[in-house]
Amino acid sequence: MLTRRSPFAVPAAEQGWIDTVTALAQDFAVTVADDDRDARLPIEHLRALSDSGLDAAFLPREHGGEGLSYVTLAHTVRILAAHHPAVATVWLM
Question: How many Cα neighbours within 13 Å face the side chain of 78?
């Protein structure tokens, strides 16, 4: 659970991505205890992030992405880490 707000605002045009990652992360949180206990990497969560288009969205426009901002990247990692730290770590690699 995030307890402190970020001092940086996500650009309005990118808020939909934050909504998407928040919804996905809430689903991921359901498995975090079991995944940790079993030392399991939840590939299905990483696949869900990719299927949402989030992976490509951070690419520059000239390479087929949306060129999302570093602020949105930071918020994305923060949300993922708050709900499922292992997913956040591996996704960021």
Answer: 16
